[in-house]
TrEMBL record:
Top-level division of the source organism's lineage: Bacteria
Gene3D superfamilies: 2.60.120.1390
Source lineage: Bacteria, Bacillati, Actinomycetota, Actinomycetes, Pseudonocardiales
UniProt-recorded name of the protein: DUF2961 domain-containing protein
InterPro entries: DUF2961
Matching Pfam families: DUF2961
Region (Disordered): 21-43
Length: 361
């Protein structure tokens, strides 16, 4: 007797789950409610066509205001987010996500950094859970389960109004008991104090697994900058007399899947983007006002999640070289996003950044 052909659950197996999608053309996601607006940012263009012809394709988020992108009653899971806005807003729009009515956000990240674009300039990114396509089409495929409610907002802390196009697709169905909540945290050291390490997450409590890292790194010294190790302190590591991590890599470029300084002989720094890791952005000095090199790197721990039972902290060293083949402690501009799943809807997170701390300069 032949054995059944194995199928990917999300591709061919039928389900009783309900699919819904929220956009400016259907702000509630209700069935049969899409494309019915009579007013919106496209109303003037549709004046000869009327209702149903792209009357409301986007929203305006005024300076200093917060827009609600989605208010969803669960249980369910957000499956895909597509969003775009002008690059000048990528660091000044704060994306927040709240799960199950928690007043504290699980996600609080500048929108550009959430999609691995912290420098306000486009670079193609083709990965398993984040795809960024010409010219600034941001796509997220992170699974975001919730049990009773999901709320997604954008706060504009910049000086100018932002026009934002978006679509959020989700499924309404029971969530497995073991499903964790997605968290994402942003931090920046500009510059990193000499002798310090850049913290990605610190003091996270609960059971979960770490799934992703993005670094926006600007060098403030000449020479190679990526000798620093990425270190994961799991559970009781921080409580030991001799504080050492359980997981310790061998260098920054090694952690992101490269080698030998990302330097292809004859070509120099060489960008790459793959399903799980990449150096997708290399910004070089232009001989005028852009004097420093800047980089964007990501790694998704999807096949290799880093699991913890009750506590997690993660940091990365900033090391270059000096004379005598000695390490040089660097004072670079380093921003990061850390993604992890947790058994609770909120945990310790850094203070909300202000506009000056977010500014690309």
């Amino acid at each position: 007797m032949a054995h059944p052909i194995p199928l990917q659950p999300e591709m061919a197996l039928l389900s009783t789950a309900v699919t819904r999608s929220i956009s400016p053309e259907n702000p509630t996601g209700a069935p049969g409610a899409g494309g019915g607006a009579t007013e919106g940012t496209g109303a003037a263009a549709a004046r000869d066509l009327g209702r149903g012809w792209k009357v409301s394709p986007s929203i305006e988020v005024p300076a200093g205001r917060t827009a609600s992108l989605a208010e969803i009653d669960g249980p369910g899971v957000v499956q895909h987010i597509w969003i775009t806005t002008h690059p000048s807003h990528w660091r000044s729009l704060l994306l927040r996500m709240h799960w199950d009515g928690d007043a504290e956000p699980a996600v609080e990240v500048p929108i550009g950094d959430f999609f691995c674009h912290g420098w306000g300039e486009f670079a193609q990114l083709s990965s398993q859970v984040v795809a960024v396509n010409p010219h600034g089409g941001f796509n997220s495929y992170w699974q975001m389960p919730f049990r009773s409610a999901a709320r997604i907002t954008l706060e504009n802390i910049g000086p100018d109004p932002a026009i934002v196009y978006f679509q959020i697709t989700y499924s309404l169905a029971p969530v497995p008991e073991q499903a964790g909540y997605l968290h994402a945290q942003w931090r920046r050291d500009n510059p990193l104090a000499k002798g310090d390490t850049h913290t990605l997450v610190d003091g996270v409590t609960g059971r979960g697994h770490y799934v992703g890292t993005y670094l926006a790194w600007a060098t403030n010294s000449s020479g190679w900058w990526g000798e620093g190790e990425v270190k994961f302190y799991l559970d009781d590591d921080r409580d030991a007399d001799d504080v050492l991590p359980t997981i310790c890599g061998t260098g920054t470029e090694d952690y992101f899947g490269g080698a030998w300084n990302f330097d292809v002989p004859g070509s120099g720094y060489t960008a790459f983007t793959t399903p799980y890791l990449g150096l997708h952005q290399v910004l070089r000095p232009d001989g005028c006002y852009r004097s420093q090199q800047r980089f964007g790197m990501y790694r998704w721990h999807l096949p290799d999640p880093i699991r913890f039972a009750h506590a997690l902290s993660v940091d990365v060293q900033a090391l270059g070289w000096r004379s005598g083949r000695r390490y040089l402690q660097l004072q670079d501009d380093i921003a990061s996003v850390a993604w992890f799943y947790l058994d609770r809807t909120s945990t310790r997170r850094p203070p909300t950044p202000d506009a000056d701390h977010l500014e690309v300069c």
